[in-house]
Amino acid sequence: MRRALRSRIVRTFLITQLLLEVQFWFPVYLIYLLDLGFSLTTAVLADAVFRLVAVACEFPVGVLADLAGRRRSYLALAGGTVLAFVAITQIDSTGLLFGAWALWGVQWALTSGVASAYLYDLCAQNEPDLDPTRVFGLSRAVGSVAVLISLLAAGYLYEVDPRLPFAVTAALAIPAAILTLTLPEIRAPRQHTALKSVLENLRDAWTRAGVRRAAWLGVILLVFGWSARILFQPLALDLGLSARVTGWMYAAFAAASMAGGLTAGYIRLHHRRATLATVFLLILATLAATAQASWLGPFLFLPVLGFGYALGTTVLEVVTHEVTPQPVRAMMFGLVTCLGGIGIAVSRPALGVLTADHSVAFAFGVWACVGVVLLGLATAILRRVH
Fold first, then answer.
1. Sign of the dihedral defined by the CA atoms of residues 156, 159, 160, 164, in that order
2. If DSSP states are collapsed to H, E and C, what string results for 11-66?
3. Positive or negative CA dihedral for 268, 269, 270, 271?
4. pLDDT at residue 193 greater than cutoff 60
5. What is the mean pLDDT of residues 231-252?
6. What pTM, to 2 d.p., does this model score?
7. CA-CA-CA-CA torsion sign (202, 74, 46, 222)
8. Inter-axis angle of helices 8-20 and 70-89, to 10 degrees?
9. In which broad location class does this protein mainly occur, judging by the first location in its UniProt entry (predicted)?
10. Cβ contact 343:227 at 8 Å
11. Closest CA relative to residue 217, chosen from 323, 290, 365
């Protein structure tokens, strides 16, 4: 870890990630819309628009990112963050609400593969002696620190001015863009700069068994681990946790995620398959345990879930980069996120309905049962990973 931090390029990139990964908006965005006078139905419809736009844009944005180059794409991510969150602060009508949420969906799609592909290529081009797993572990930890800080501060910012959490998010993206200008661009072969060649490269990459396995594992882990987050807030409400205690619950989850990202840096090559199998089992166990003893969920089971999910996604991220050709790395992550997003678009509303019709514990139990099937699929894939 210390060796990675000695690199100016890695340090600069990590600082930009810290500035772009903040989530001051997360605990308050629904409250913000309700305070603006929008109904819960309108807010939910806006969220549906956001999800649809994000999923629809994942793959096209990945294509454009591979065509435009890593640094320019990363600059577009910073610029999109500024535009999206400034637009949110200006909402005063239903039209602006849906427009801002659609813009936010495009910005969200940019986050999927652009930063990850840029970091891996920066290391490969400028710091070939560094272990990418440790660098990605640091990146994951920095992202978790950003989330932890912003979750704890969001409520206080909202009390000062309801628009402030979104304005601060936009403002922090400006120095991130400036810092990005100090990072090198990635050299790409000239033949890989045309749309036709990029799509051909993606088709050729998909014919490789290692690429397909990594991609499907990524989709399964994304759907399995991310979908469960829709149950966190209902769990807190069901247990009667105050807003402050709920904030600490999310902080504990973020802290555990940071630990998971750092731990990934110490997973050796021959232990990756066992680690990924353990991660799927760990997530399944935490879901089942929360269903049986929900009162232990917020500060025991959910942080363990966060640790496992961060560990698994970090290791799998590096594996995916290693087996995917350089010209289509951002596109491959866009494809994985798109496919996972389709699954999440089905699972999250279904879990919400189960919570409303039955209970939070019941929804956790059902998702654990689904997890048995997902674990079986992941195990079948992992058996073929060498």
1. positive
2. HHHHHHHHHHCCCCCCCCHHHHHHHCCCCHHHHHHHHHHHHHHHHHHHHHHHHHHH
3. positive
4. no
5. 82
6. 0.82
7. positive
8. 20
9. membrane
10. yes
11. 323
